[in-house]
Design goal:
The complex is a heterodimer of chains A (431) and B (317). With 431 residues, chain A is α/β, with parallel strands linked by helices. Chain A contains 11 helices and 19 strands. Chain A has a 5-stranded antiparallel beta sheet, covered by helices on one side. A 5-stranded parallel beta sheet of chain A has the order 9-10-13-14-15. In chain A, strands 3-2-1-4 form a 4-stranded mixed beta sheet, with no helix packed on it. In chain A, strand 2 and strand 3 (24-29) form a beta hairpin. Chain B has helices at residues 13-30, 54-66, 86-97, 111-117, 136-149, 172-184, 212-216, 230-233, 240-247, 251-255, 277-281, 287-307, 311-316, and strands at residues 44-49, 70-75, 101-106, 124-130, 161-165, 187-191, 207-209, 221-224, 262-264. The chains are: A alpha/beta (431), B alpha/beta (317).
Chain lengths: 431, 317
């Protein structure tokens, strides 16, 4: 199969034609014309986005999302690779479950789905899961995380960090000291004091980050901090990097834009873990992402069915969907504020996450021979988020009704178009 | 006035005083031969209680009945209604039954607001205590009680000094009282061990003290809060005795209050923990006034949310 993307703008503002044949970029130049023509005039061509933090809910909670619907949401959001978190039912703590998720991703065929393995059996935080078996499975798991729960036992965390060195794995920590966050409902601060909701203090995140940074230094392993949310956490990661410690960090789009005062009306769509923080934290996160202290954006796409949100705050589930709004939210938070360039965005949302995870065919510089995992964006567009138009099975977006900049127009997975003019096309396994 | 009473923030100072004035009018009528008013005849008030609170429920029930409303008591605790499942289903059921007002007590902060905002129900919603958030009618009845003891503060609480003592962190009564008292002009001091003061208190318009003895002489109103002994299990304080020594109102502390000062407590009291029996039963204590004023103030709230016509005109007719 061969086609030509014409008049696409690259992040360095060059306008080029790109020929894709047999899944790779075969030629870049001007005046090219082979096979079908896809007009990208005025639009930006970038490597497909890569998410290291996605909840797909399958197996077990197919009422909220499946690998297939989550993959479609990813394609709509411009992602060509996503990473399925382990907190499914059953937990992805064995080779069998991660291979199942991997296979479901391949069958859906809208993006590459790379399973993340659990660190501990059943996410119970008691004993290590079979990390080696998952690493050696067909899913070739390299990232391990108990996300949703913190690996709070320091000895177990140390062992996990050490153990994954055999296959160059990485432990992605959900930093939340459980003893400081019993029944926590929202950020602890001015707003929680008024609303009478149990606080989730910043120190509960920072204490674990500090500990794990020191553990990673001590054993010389790779640590990834999931969804950083506090100014103090950014400082800790900055300190770790200045010491040469092998730590990477992630921030979600929603923590770059939303603050805890949105909770004031107890609308549970704003209930998320870790919680929305203060304006000061948001600014520190933006600064950290801009200066590279925070390496990547991870969506923490967390679908929940209506009934899990349509209740009082305390009973509502934590989490927000994010795949389909991620790019636009980052553009709004980082590019419209002139804190980052498009080149920076491509690094934080594609190149850097692919590199951290070792997704070799993703996040590549656009050049001849690169795998055609590509996204085309209309950077002049504005759109209004309509939850009923999301491809995700769940509709729990905090951005409902918000006008956002930049729209994903086309997405290509391994040279196959999966999104055309914003509409899903061509699912199914790659031949 | 708004359709709902969810938080003291729903009221301006003028509206709050209007409720107190209405309650005063109702007090005059209650002293007369006809205690019952026809105002809410044909209207249905539902007491939707997800938490046990006999005293608050009875207070709302008598308030509604004295205004001739039909009252349905819906005790959701222990019934098929379990946590989470039910707020929506229950609300829709009440809507189908044609409730005009729903008085809700719920263990989750924000439940009343959720009920009002959700579109599940078109009735007026009155918050009768939501988790550790607010209890606005308690604050109104406390303000009414204060005003009845200090006529000089009839139009404004400017110059009134109030100390609220105890478990501020978990107290919906404290939150509503801080909002209302400061709105009306009083100066408020919170007194508690630091573990029971919210982290975000710096943003409240209050003073904070960890030393009860130092504030006693300088208050007109001493409001004692119930302290639940289970807080001890979570190390909010080391022991009941230590709490009581530091923050309990014993006879010595009672005697160091100024001559006209009053002692309040939202009830139920833990005698011997936050308040000694002598203090609770002393002439400074207005605890029983609070209870009887509760009915009047809740009548006033129901009247203003559901009634509308001017009270005096209707009564004289």
């Amino acid at each position: 199969m061969e086609f030509t993307i014409t008049n696409a703008r690259l992040i360095d503002d060059q306008v080029v034609d790109v020929i894709v044949s047999n899944g790779v970029i075969s030629e870049i130049g001007n005046g090219l014309n082979k096979g079908e023509k896809i007009n990208a005039a005025k639009n930006l061509l970038i490597p497909g986005l890569v998410d290291l933090h996605t909840h797909l809910r399958e197996p077990g909670r197919e009422d909220s999302e499946t690998v297939a619907t989550g993959s479609m949401a990813a394609a709509k959001g411009g992602f060509t690779a996503i990473s399925a978190m382990a907190n499914t039912f059953p937990v992805a703590d064995t080779a069998g479950v991660v291979e199942q998720v991997y296979r479901l991703g391949q069958e859906a065929g809208f993006c590459d789905v790379f399973p993340i393995g659990a660190v501990t059996q059943g996410l119970a935080g008691k004993s290590l899961a079979e990390l080696g078996a998952m690493a050696n499975s067909k899913a070739r798991v390299r990232i391990f995380s108990d996300d949703g729960k913190c690996v709070s036992d320091p000895l177990l965390m140390r062992r996990a960090l050490e153990y994954v060195k055999t296959f160059n794995g990485i432990i992605a920590q959900h930093a939340q000291e459980p003893a400081l966050t019993v029944d926590s409902q929202m950020n602890e601060g001015i707003v929680s004091s008024k609303l009478g909701l149990v606080g989730w203090p910043a120190v509960a995140e920072e204490a674990i980050i500090a500990r794990d940074i020191l553990l990673a230094e001590h054993v010389g392993s790779r640590l990834h901090i999931c969804h950083l949310t506090t100014a103090g956490g950014v400082d800790l990661v900055r300190f770790a990097k200045s010491r040469g410690i092998n730590v990477t960090a992630e921030v979600t789009p929603h923590h770059l834009l939303l603050t805890d005062d949105l909770v004031t009306n107890y609308d549970s769509v704003y209930k998320v873990n870790p919680p929305l923080r203060t304006g000061k934290d948001v600014l520190a996160l933006r600064k950290g992402l801009a200066d590279g202290t925070i390496d990547i954006v991870g969506t923490d796409h967390a679908p929940h069915p209506t009934e899990d949100k349509d209740c009082e705050w305390q009973s509502a589930a934590f989490g927000m969907v994010g795949l389909e709004t991620a790019l636009s939210v980052v553009v709004k938070a980082m590019i419209e504020t002139k804190m980052m360039s498009w080149a920076d965005l491509v690094d934080r949302m594609s190149i850097a996450p692919a590199k951290i995870a070792g997704y070799l065919h993703h996040g590549q510089i656009l050049k001849v021979g690169a795998t055609a995992n590509l996204t085309i964006i209309d950077t002049n567009a504005n759109w209004i988020v309509d939850r009923n138009r999301l491809a995700s099975k769940s509709k729990n977006t905090p951005f409902e009704g918000m006008q956002l900049p930049s729209r994903v127009v086309h997405t290509f997975l391994n040279g196959k178009q999966v999104l055309s003019n914003g509409e899903i096309v061509n699912g199914g396994a790659v031949e | 006035m708004n359709k709902h009473l969810l938080s003291i923030n729903d009221l301006s100072a003028e509206e709050a005083f209007e409720i107190l004035n209405t309650a005063s009018e109702l007090a005059k009528i209650s002293d007369g031969p006809m205690k019952k008013l026809p105002t809410l005849r044909g209207r249905t008030v539902v007491n939707l209680f997800f938490e046990d609170s006999t005293r608050t429920r009875i207070s709302f029930e008598s308030a509604a009945k004295r205004l001739s409303a039909d009252v349905i008591n819906f005790s959701a605790k222990g019934s098929s209604v379990s946590k989470g499942e039910s707020l929506k289903d229950t609300a829709q059921t009440l809507q189908a039954m044609g409730a005009d007002a729903v008085v809700i007590r719920h263990g989750a902060s924000g439940a009343a607001q959720r009920l009002a905002d959700s579109g599940w129900i078109s009735a007026s919603v009155i918050n009768a205590g939501d988790g550790t958030h607010e209890h606005p009618t308690q604050a109104l009845l406390d303000a009414y009680t204060i005003r009845s003891k200090f006529p000089q503060f009839n139009q404004s609480f400017d110059g009134l000094r109030v100390a609220i003592v105890g478990d501020i962190l978990h107290s919906r009564v404290a939150r509503s009282n801080v909002l209302l008292l400061t709105k009306l002009g009083a100066s408020v001091t919170l007194v508690a061990p630091p573990t029971l003061i919210p982290v975000g208190v710096a943003d409240w318009k209050v003073k904070v003290s960890y030393d009860l003895d130092s504030v006693l002489k300088e208050v007109d109103v001493l409001m004692m809060l119930r302290v639940q002994s289970e807080r001890m299990a979570n190390s909010f304080f080391p022991s009941e005795r230590e709490y009581s020594r530091g923050y309990g109102l014993d006879i010595t502390r009672l005697n160091s209050l100024s001559k006209n000062a009053i002692v309040m407590h939202p009830g139920p009291m833990n005698r011997g923990l936050e308040i000694s029996a002598e203090s609770a039963d002393s002439h400074k204590s207005v605890v029983l006034d609070q209870v009887s004023n509760g009915v009047l103030v809740r009548m006033a709230v129901l009247y203003q949310l559901l009634g509308g016509a001017t009270l005096t005109g209707e009564v004289s007719a």
